[in-house]
Amino acid sequence: MSSQDIPEENLPAEQDHAHGAVGIADEQNPFADPGLPPHEHRIQDVDERAARRSERMVALLFTVSMLATIGFIVSYVAIPNDESIFVFPIGHLSAMNFALGLTLGVALFCIGAGAVHWARTLMSDVEVADDRHPIEASPEVRAKVHADFRQGAKESAFGRRKLIRNTMFGALALVPLSGVMLLGGLGPAPGTSLRHTLWAKGKRLINMNTNQPLRPEDVAVGSLTFAKPDGLEETDDQFQTELAKAALMIVRLQPDNIKDKRELDWSHEGIVAFSKICTHVGCPISLYEQQTHHVLCPCHQSTFDLSDGARVIFGPAGHALPQLRIGVDSEGYLQALGDFEEPVGPAFWERG
Question: How far, in Å, CA of 118 to CA of 10, rounded?
Answer without folding.
Answer: 22
